[in-house]
Every structure is written in C-alpha cells, then in structure tokens.
Amino acid sequence: MAKIITPLLSQSADKAALPSLLAATDDAATNGSYWGPAGFMKLKGLPGPAAIPKQAKNLPSASSLWEVGEQIDRG
C-alpha cells in the first residue's frame, strides 16, 4: 500500500528542497512570503506561493520555540 500512496503524496528530497532554495535566492520571494509545493494538494510539485499555516502565526509558540533554540545553542 505504501508503494502506491507514497509517490502520490510525496516527492524526492531534491524537489522538496526547491521551495526553500527559491525563498532564499529568488527576488520574487519577498520578506514575509511563504513558499511550498504548488502541485497536487500542495504536497508536491514545483514551488509557488503558499498560505502560511495557522500554527506558524502562533506568536507564543514561536517565542517558546526560539527560547528552546537559544538554550540548545548555548549547550
């Protein structure tokens, strides 16, 4: 079953990296924009503008995550 579903809902690592590469290098990617797969169910395909997930807009969670990252960085 996984052999059938996996290719439909995922893509190779090199293709999955494209939205991040586009966001880091393309002039069309402005500050505050969000990029992801623009294909089937927004799970695969070439990169394009994407909606920012609701969870990513949660400021208390973002603050906590930042603090944890700082603690890890300090060792």
Q: Could you describe the 3D structure shown?
A:
With about 80 residues, the protein is mainly alpha-helical. It has one domain (about 1-75). The protein contains 4 helices and 2 strands, in the order H-H-H-E-E-H. Strands 1-2 form a two-stranded antiparallel sheet. The longest helix is centred in the C-terminal third of the chain and has 16 residues, at about 60-75. It starts with a helix and ends with a helix. The mean pLDDT is about 90.
Which terms would index this structure?
4 helices; 75 residues; mainly alpha; extended
What is the compact description of this entry?
This protein has 75 residues and is mainly alpha-helical.
How many structural domains are formed by the residues?
A: 1
Q: Please state the CA-atom Rg, rounded to the nearest Å.
A: 16 Å
Low-confidence stretches: none
Largest sheet: 2 strands, antiparallel
The number of distinct helices, counting runs of at least 4 residues, comes to 4
Strand order of the largest sheet: 1-2
